[in-house]
What we know:
By secondary structure, the chain is mainly alpha-helical.
Amino acid sequence: MINSVCLVFFAVLLVSLQTHNNGLLIIWGVFAFFFYVFSGKRIKTVIAVQVVFSAGFSLYLYTLAHWIPQIQSTEMHVFLSRMSLIFVLLPLWLLSLFLRRPLLNYWRKPAWKETMVFPFIWSGFHRVSVARFLVIALAVNLAVFIPFVYTNRMSIIVEIWLLAIIFSVTNALLEELIWRGVLLSRFAEGLGEKWAVALTSVGFGLQHFSLGFSWPVCLAFSVGGLFFGGITVRSRSILPAMAWHLVLNLLMVLSGIVI
């Protein structure tokens, strides 16, 4: 029950911040306060992480709305918009220092031989190694996006290749450090890995609303976040998700879905 409440709290927080719904944010704050006061130590940590995240995410949103639009250079605009994610990461880093916890629990060599189960990571009808799962995922992404790249962008790839690399590297690195790095680590300590994957997946998807995506598309991104989180906890490393995210971002730029 309490894990479900934490999931709903996090979703409401993301929605209220991005829609500037102060009334909903106040309601979230009141309920979060009471849960913090009357819950155990682990849930207190989860609530504290959400509060600190909200501060950093608010600054990130302010930067996107008021600072970044003033940048004239397209390449610099893209780079700084993605680098502004550092405002989300820094408060979480400070909280980790305060809690005397490592920033990331998944910064190590991937356990490639560990298994993932499709479609629910821990259960399903097909079991494969992490390495094979990543290869299959990348192959599916290439098969889906390459036709769009060939149709829509082949004539201008020479012009946008630098922009594509800038976006893909900075976005994949910082988003993974936030979602499958610090947040997954902290939420797993309070709720266990399965619920931590659920919270970070929902949050990861919903935060794309600030980038101009509709709520249904954001929910689709949450499904993708579920597998990013799954491959992270099963491999015990953030590196596979980071590599997968980078390739996917690159394909999305080259196909014209973003930028």
